[in-house]
Amino acid sequence: MVAQQRVVRSGGSGAAGSGGAQPRDVPVDREYLQTVLLELLRTPSPSGRTDGVMQYVGERISELGIPFDLTRRGILRATIGGGAGAVRRAVMVHADTIGCMVKRLQDNGRLEVVPVGSHSARFSEGAHVTVFTDDPDRVYTGTVLPLKSSGHTYGDEIDTQGVGWDQVEVRVDEPVETVRDLLELGISVGDFVALDASPQVTRGGYVKSRHLDDKAGLACCLAAVKAIVDARATVAVTAQLLVTIGEEVGFGATHGLAPDLAEMVAVDNAVVAPGQSSREETANIGMLDMTGPFDYHLSRRIHALADEHGIPVRRDVYRHYRSDVAPALEAGVEARAALLGFGVESSHGHERTHIDGLVALTRLLAVYLQSDLTFSDWDRHASGALDDFPSTSVQPADLEPVDRTVWAEAGAEG
């Protein structure tokens, strides 16, 4: 059977949409972006203890005049422009970070901890931390140390001890030497231990900090919304900004999404490392991660928008990676999905990015929010007829030849 050429009713994978106002590359308030980023970084929010950072995010969104609400557990849902009609687009970003939790009060007055989220004890050694007890007025500082932390005591053994969470402990900055001392401070098993971010911005524009994943992405989202509001730009499709609180432990965007989405874009870190294409100075588009390929058309549509507006962008593939898109798709959301990222060196470790890359990502988000859906007619419906399906006209797949084998003629020399 010969495959028929399907006709797309409006637009193609790189089309602007239904003929409305074209997206504009609106100015980005760099000072706002940097200020919000540093304030987010200095607000502790390990997965499971995120109410404080959501209060901050809500206040920033209120200042922009954007309507929003919060779910029972604290996911924030803001609605951006687009006029009447259903919410068809979502931009998802998470406010939670990696951290630790007290597992045991030790006889020496120190704390055994376990990780919250996936990260190595190697990068926690030497970290300054904040210990949150159940009493909000009793908060303590401390340091994550190897069990053998003094070269004057252990000599070369400090270089040969193992790496792992059973090889570190938290030294609390209080006069404690026993379990009883810790209990008297109000410290208990199950208390959260936040790794201090300690952000720095260098003269060259690099940002060094823990928890750039995903505080930098969240700052870009807020700055993109501000850029649209300040420029009075037209948002072609009503969009939802979903700020999640459990991405680092695997259940970020499992709920809170609008019911009739056609597109969803996760904003998260892009891995900068040997063998990766992502850069700190550019916006980055993830084409595939450990859960599979992202949507063919939406990913290329966003890349086309970047090219059209001169926004520096790279495409990349990530092997050991998962974002808010994965739990949303696993929860049954039937929508195109894509991943945008800011480049991060040493993710979940001693992280670094660059202001230029954050600005590029902010610009791309603002342009994307002004654009129409990938297929302006088709994507507005949950289903449709095959005759309207944008198939071979935008994603051709010719039939393989019936037989590719070439037999040598009889008697021919080998």
| Proportion of residues in β-strands | 15-25%
Succession of helices and strands: HHEEEEEEEHHEHEEEHEEEEHEHEEH
Indicate how many domains the architecture comprises.
Answer: 2
Low-confidence blocks of residues = 1-19
Structural class: alpha+beta
In CATH, the homologous superfamily of the largest domain goes by the name Zn peptidases
Put simply, the count of helices is: 9
What is the average per-residue confidence, as pLDDT, rounded to a whole number? Answer: 91
Roughly how many Å apart are the termini?
38 Å
Largest sheet: 9 strands, mixed
> CATH class of the largest domain, anyone?
Alpha Beta
Q: Under CATH, the topology of the largest domain is which?
A: Aminopeptidase
Helix content: 10-25%
Radius of gyration: 25 Å
Number of strands: 18
Instruction: Characterize the overall form.
Output: globular
CATH architecture classification name of the largest domain: 3-Layer(aba) Sandwich
Name the assembly state: single chain
Which helices and strands, and how do they pair?
Blueprint: H1 30-41, H2 51-63, E1 68-70, E2 76-80, E3 89-94, E4 99-105, E5 111-116, E6 128-132, E7 139-146, H3 151-154, H4 157-160, E8 168-172, H5 179-185, E9 192-195, E10 200-201, E11 206-208, H6 212-231, E12 239-244, E13 263-272, E14 283-289, E15 292-293, H7 296-308, E16 313-317, H8 325-330, E17 336-345, E18 352-354, H9 355-370
Parallel strand pairs: 3-12, 3-13, 13-17, 14-16
Antiparallel strand pairs: 1-2, 2-12, 4-5, 4-9, 6-7, 6-9, 7-8, 10-11, 11-18, 14-15, 14-17
